[in-house]
## 1
Amino acid sequence: MMGERIYLYDTTLRDGAQTQDVDFSVADKIAIAQDLDRLGIDYVEGGWPGANPTDDAFFAEAPDLTRATFTAFGMTRRPGRSAANDPQLSALIQSRARSVCIVGKTWDFHVDVALNIPRDENLDLIRDSIAALRVAKGEALFDAEHFFDGYKRNPAYAASCIRAAFEAGARWVVLCDTNGGTLPHEIEAIVRTVIEEHGIPGDRLGIHCHNDTENAVANSIAAVRAGVRMVQGTINGLGERCGNANLVSLIPTLMLKMGYETGIRRADLPLLTQVSRAFDERLNRAPNRHAPYVGSSAFAHKGGLHVSAVEKDPSSYEHVEPDAVGNHRQIVVSDQAGRSNLIVRLREIGMEVDPKDERLPRLLDLVKQRDSEGYAYDTAEASFEMLVRRELGEVPKYFELLRFHVTDERRYNALGKLVVESEAVVRVRVGGEIRLEVAEGNGPVHALDLAMRKALEPCYPLLGDMRLSDYRVRILAAKAGTAAMTRVLIRSANGDGTEWSTLGVSTNIIEASVEALVDSFTCKLFKTGAEPRR
Amino acid sequence: MMGERIYLYDTTLRDGAQTQDVDFSVADKIAIAQDLDRLGIDYVEGGWPGANPTDDAFFAEAPDLTRATFTAFGMTRRPGRSAANDPQLSALIQSRARSVCIVGKTWDFHVDVALNIPRDENLDLIRDSIAALRVAKGEALFDAEHFFDGYKRNPAYAASCIRAAFEAGARWVVLCDTNGGTLPHEIEAIVRTVIEEHGIPGDRLGIHCHNDTENAVANSIAAVRAGVRMVQGTINGLGERCGNANLVSLIPTLMLKMGYETGIRRADLPLLTQVSRAFDERLNRAPNRHAPYVGSSAFAHKGGLHVSAVEKDPSSYEHVEPDAVGNHRQIVVSDQAGRSNLIVRLREIGMEVDPKDERLPRLLDLVKQRDSEGYAYDTAEASFEMLVRRELGEVPKYFELLRFHVTDERRYNALGKLVVESEAVVRVRVGGEIRLEVAEGNGPVHALDLAMRKALEPCYPLLGDMRLSDYRVRILAAKAGTAAMTRVLIRSANGDGTEWSTLGVSTNIIEASVEALVDSFTCKLFKTGAEPRR
């Protein structure tokens, strides 16, 4: 089995486009198709020409793919029409796709109820459509809809449907778990029967799974182990309901753990993390930090004893090398932090500290103390660094926020519309100078951010390059006899896209926000080596 | 196999607490343990007494669980100490847990490198610790760390470790895929060997999987099929790196598809969706709409032919009944479908509306419009009800907030301490009267809440019975060319514990908060049938 070839078929742009909340533009589709091609995916399914304006426009401007086969999706001809006379099939044939995949029924119940035609006629639909596409395009694929549910109820009929497609010349017959409810051992058993009893060879079979039981990846692997040689899926598991099989998880497992070859060159496998994250960025979704292989936490280590062991021998704590998929190791600090964990974390912010350094216990106590107050430093590395360096006396006093005053008021704006406007006044000491500034913003924190910039930028013009990129608030449940604490997390970004996170904790949301803001400005000044004003 | 009992062991509060971005407070831990108990989980692992202040405080206030076994986590005794003299084991024994689970090494490499002791001595560590705990607590469990990786390298040694635990009387020997890299077919094969060749019966074996290849659920199922009878996992798959096995996905598969019994009564299975979503709300994370079984999109269907077919026979398009897990079908896109969906939602808030009611299209447009603005009414049923009833003219004008003004200022308090104080002034019309009031609070929203109560309570004394129980803020990603929107969710509670949720959306956090506050007061007045002031 080692070294055998698995074909990868991406349906992000078609089945993935069914996801609630996802709308691809033509430009999105072009960029995603090019990313998939660059990675080395064998088939890129672009959509359904004739089904909607976006897909029509995309197929009209079809991108030039260098390695992937650009594929169109459609369905078997309508009952009561010849394949040659079916407008939908004609649109597929006319499209600029190099290959066409059509879906057809294989569950007797759906033939009876949804198509409402004799079961034998459905076999004709499949045969005629595949044959016509094969002649016209050279390659046709058949998606066997509801195959596993159909096979469980009426194996003979489901098998006759896929045999019709196979005998009509389908390059791939793709077994679909359309409702997503089939379990891995069922998939494996049914695929084996299809190959052994119904005589369709594995190198003509594909698998298409949905994640409704969280088994889409395992189901795809089970089918491959049973013999199929093509896998359909989507980037990051996009897809309707619970999503399709996640190619980003499947690819490294197939290549690094199961020894299969795909169209992806080994040297290109590290592109995977980047392709996955760029895809989420394009959809304006935060990448899933816990995603297998490619998430930013996928190789994170937390907890004292454990971390010193990871340092000794990563391979005994990591199931694959993070580099192999373009990811990297991350060491985090938290409540669980032991001394060795702290040392590693300090190393990450560029501080080499000897394990016997007498300042370590003090720092560890400080971090633990802050943790118990609600400071979650694993999400705010910049605040962690500022905390430590301040404690060690390394951070100059760039400025001091002496006083602030924020007002939020509902009033009529210049257009006569009732709005809430926020205004902040700050009094800041910068070197020997006291600066009093005021600014208006979208909300109290925005106003404070702007007012502080007005006060600081004349002395530190570098701050003009940074902006707030995210702001999150969480209320920490009150401990007995105290007020609830508010935790504010601020993410800041430079013009070049580099980001850092800071946090603040207080019973007052404004105070917590100010703390995070001050850390963010201070971190920026410290990192750029700004000279403190005297 | 039908009807056999699988034991469920939840480690959300211990292994789940290792998740980056997650920090449980003691109050969180208590509430989550109670939810798990109510659902019917067999074991609730609370944490590691002695390891950190949060776990110490939690075990000191250990909740009274009615059905679940409250369990503590720890590790085998240290080398060179007797079990009786090991402070860590003593802390476990002294804890209020009814059962203890300890982790120990089973991979020879880790014994050599991490423990740095002779391999036989590790067997003594395991035996002594399990025996001591079993005597002291009546029940001990053994987590066999790195078992699968260890077994692949040195099966004899890994087997001798778990046999030591078994022979010392461990109720459960839990095989852990600590690094998360093992695939389902490997898990199944190794578990079968453990049972058949190493003689540990399946009803004494558990499985503990991580999701590093997106196979944690499938790996757990594979182990159960091979014979283990206990499954460890977490709510929503929380856990370090890529997470632990997701109990929320596993439970319905085990019970509804594989025919196993668990500690969860069939009639309680519909609690699952609520437990899953409440957990995310507690962590201030958006529930994953694509989550298997419990996600809001898990049973979503798009318009067109498909939907009428779903209505004819849901079972041919849905792998399980949504009701069975407390979820519901969602029909999207077509106006016709949207209308019946709306009727269902109205019924949920106690309004029976005829499908032909001429007000429905107007309501549907309103809800769609609000949805597109970021109002997520599925988390704020009270705001949904107020929206609909206001549109239908059913909500009296109890009061009108004419103007407000909030200030937040850093200043010295009466004790000479630098604090941030928030003060709100409101001008409210109640009947024919205009009331101007001011109040101070912990933050701007707290101050507004108090000021509004001062203005309203003299007219509506009922409001004295309610309080804010939670306040959450989420920033919604900006669409092209617009400012980011802020969504505020407020949870309010009556003295008797009944709760309701309201929301507000605006570019300004204060405006969004005020909107949610006004909805909350209005809802309270409406629900108690208050007479509006004239």
## 2
Amino acid sequence: MEPVFPFALVLPRPAPDGLTRALHQQLRAAILDGRLGAGTPLPATRRVAAALGLGRNTVVAAYDLLVAEGYVQPRTGATAVVADLAHRRGSRSPHARGERRLDPAWSMPELQPETPRILPERSFRLGVPEHRLFPHDTWRRLNARALRRWSRAPFGYPPSEGLPELREAIARHVALARAVACSAGDVLVTSGAQQAFDLLARLLVVPGRTRVAVENPGYPPLRAAFLAAGAQLVPVRVDDEGLCVDELPDDVRVVSVTPSHQSPTGVALSLPRRRALLAFARRHDTLVVEDDYDGEFRFGGRPLDALQTLDREGRVFYVGTFSKSLFPALRKGFVVAPEWARAPLAAVKHCVDSHSDAITQMVLADFLREGHLARHVRRMRAVYDARRAALLEAIAGPLGHWLEPMPSEAGLHLAARLRDPRDAPRVFAAARRDAPGAQPTLDYAVAGVEPEPALAFGYGVIDAEAIAPAFARMRRVLLR
Amino acid sequence: MEPVFPFALVLPRPAPDGLTRALHQQLRAAILDGRLGAGTPLPATRRVAAALGLGRNTVVAAYDLLVAEGYVQPRTGATAVVADLAHRRGSRSPHARGERRLDPAWSMPELQPETPRILPERSFRLGVPEHRLFPHDTWRRLNARALRRWSRAPFGYPPSEGLPELREAIARHVALARAVACSAGDVLVTSGAQQAFDLLARLLVVPGRTRVAVENPGYPPLRAAFLAAGAQLVPVRVDDEGLCVDELPDDVRVVSVTPSHQSPTGVALSLPRRRALLAFARRHDTLVVEDDYDGEFRFGGRPLDALQTLDREGRVFYVGTFSKSLFPALRKGFVVAPEWARAPLAAVKHCVDSHSDAITQMVLADFLREGHLARHVRRMRAVYDARRAALLEAIAGPLGHWLEPMPSEAGLHLAARLRDPRDAPRVFAAARRDAPGAQPTLDYAVAGVEPEPALAFGYGVIDAEAIAPAFARMRRVLLR
């Protein structure tokens, strides 16, 4: 079939903000950067709908938006044409004028933040830890103490790498909790793991040239950071042993991976795969970004060594975060960087925001040094373990006919695959109704590449005793 | 004269980390990105020294560093040659290997953070406010209250744009303090002004294409953010009325400017220049980044309208910060963005670090809403005013023979130009000894373009009564 547009138009599936918005954005980007020149007639909605597998109403709605914004000129009784934006300078549409000044990279659909879902307070949502058992009193006490210390010190600009006492405390923490070998000098404090991804993407990617392997399905905000830095993403399949290392193309310069607890399938990267990945990196002179976002919570099995621990050549950047072990709004994460990359990484951090806020760093350093983090993780591990057990039981019991848990020994969520992929639409619909927050792993997939259907369930903010009733309700719906 | 290298080599003058390091870095970058290929003989140190106006020892030291790092192969009795880095793969130098994987943009000398200067607690340093009079008790009380509120709320990911109550409070604050017309929806909370520069640079710059006008002299970290985003910088002269608007080349797409209090000369952009800048922007469809970093502190004269206030076309991004009115380590700043740019700007923020830490945002919102910021600024204005008066008196008195103050009515520092530029080396040397923290505006200049010699003095952390004695000591040295 002849292409309907003079460029590749791939819509993300599923489209988090709807297909209309996705289509509208891609067409607008094409008009803004000149791929669709002024005067070009738009193809008929019927043709576009057929070619892209969309409902015609979706295409009509996207066209209507473009007309409303002035990007497209409607013609009575004829096809609409792309408007002449140059002629519209000085017109009263600062919106359209302004957008032409932006780096068009930011109109990529993958870079549009998802509209946050409205969920009940207790739900199966992923990636959010329990607030009810957080040691708020301790946190408050350490805060007050840090502020008293703070009030006696002159103001100034703290080091970009982070406060020395926090870097020291993090080095000790990851050595004990994850056997990551490092000293304070190797640690760079970041504003959450997301900033770590952004800093690494900017440091490691030569825009337009560097190919970066990402897990598929995988964590979309990490992909966004690499895309925004100009990387060419190469999605690589994930199975029950994690990233399919033997499917890595030779020319990727960076491999990003979640070895402890794959996001979102929850599987661990097996030891043979870990060895194979490091051998691949050695053979092809590749760097590795190891995202260990919730590996502190382990529920059995011997923990596998971190890639950083196995690495002898300074190829692994280990990214950690306190978003799951403490709370996301704290915005504190870190990178353990190979020695050779420390100075340039600090230069990137210095350039992007100078440093992370100092008082929170002081509080966090004390929290770690006094053992409160270790204590909290120990306590929460037991809580999450009970929820996880209830979840596994409910999957095997009421939903055993439809779902099969994927192997997972860590973290704050686990996934279950559909025993029969054809059941996916019905099971997903039942989950939307009765297990709010549960998410199809498809939501984490790279546009156009669909993984096997599976559902991920978080147990950060659901009570153990609420799980079986929710699954019983799903079962009743599915048996109907 | 024939060029000594096959590419333009411009060293920053003055070089903050020394000329050896600057030369070393530029040569290393050229070797890494292939401009100096393997086997190329390095030109003789004597020739390089003559061509670049350096001492021969400086060149020898830079070459020695390259040899030590393995980038250059020494040859007995002959010129050294660039090493074959490809052959060194698998050798035991992960350092050199790794660096070849980085985006070479980060080896630009402008992107290397300055080594922080060691200064006494009380000094003339620029850009740091007084800590002794900060309302630490109030801050602590609001902190405790915010943490109690926090302990009752579920965890989650706060909005990328900032907490609604803080955006509301900032909108009211800038409306009152700076007559900036905006609503909460126009405000994006950032991790300090530096992050605002980074977000805007990434949003507005198409890498390798967008030309951005910057003040010369001007704030180096802002230049770093635009350079790192791939901008082509166009330095534009500054005189006693601020940025020389009529020297802006027609093809700049973004103009960055400090209208309230030029950094570092302290002058204000005159009203005719403000009008001319907005007319320029209209004529050439240009966007403006207005950096108002310490404009809250005004000491007389009628405040000039912010560019944002005068702008009728949605061309101005107004950047504010609490680093000078409160303290730098707070890491809180903001952008007031034109309506059309709000969503894409939030997308950039979402991509780079998801959001700024929430508890500090809560505290800051309360601090603003309850009037503590306005009160603190009022109080500090009187304190800084007294220091500024003492400074002006000391410049006119003991140093009147050498220095002439440049017009300045706001902020935490002012500058004084040399009456006779030939005195610059002696006066700078005297200041280094007796007025620690004072900085030649040359330190803020774009490499290779020297502004008229002047010295900037901060009065954020110097006592009024310490100023005259320091200047008297300088005078004695200068009269010797």
